[in-house]
Amino acid sequence: MDHQIYDLIYAEEPKAKFAEAFTTAKIEDASDFVHEERFSILLPPEVTTMEYYKFLIRNHFGNVSLNFGLAVTQRSPELLEAWNQIKVERAQAKLEEEVRIVDDLIIERKVQ
Fold first, then answer.
1. Tens-digit pLDDT profile for residues 82-103
2. pLDDT at 97
3. Count of other CB atoms within 10 angstroms of residue 95
């Protein structure tokens, strides 16, 4: 059985970013008399929960996602794993940048 992720996003601004990242997702206005500037997203079955959480974390959309908020309160193992993977990716990118800076300094000193 296919599992599809449904979420409510409580902001209008990120709609284009969601549409760009998930081109086959069903995105609809979900505003009502209480919540304005809200939209819903139904992701295709091939998008995993882990991929979705990583997208939310990378783009700083966790604070506007109902799904993400619920996962935080429930201490979802998938959310914790997504966060750990993002931390490792960020640490690796920072390390690579620091190595590049040192390499540039070494090359610059050799040239002098």
1. 999 999 999 998 888 888 888 8
2. 86
3. 10
Rounded Cα distance between 87 and 102, Å, is 23
Euclidean distance between CA atoms 66 and 61, whole angstroms: 10
Q: Give me 90's structure tokens.
A: 């960020």
d(CA 46, CA 5): 10
Q: Which two tokens stand for residue 84?
A: 């750990």
What CA–CA distance (Å, rounded) separates 108 from 110?
5
Query: For residue 1, what pLDDT is reported?
Result: 44
Asked whether the whole model's pTM tops 0.85, one would answer no
**d(C-alpha 12, C-alpha 36), whole Å:** 9
Query: Could you write out the DSSP letters of every residue in 68-103?
Result: HHHHHHTT-HHHHHHHHHHHHHHHHHHHHHHHHHHH
Q: How many CB atoms lie within 10 A of CB 71?
A: 21
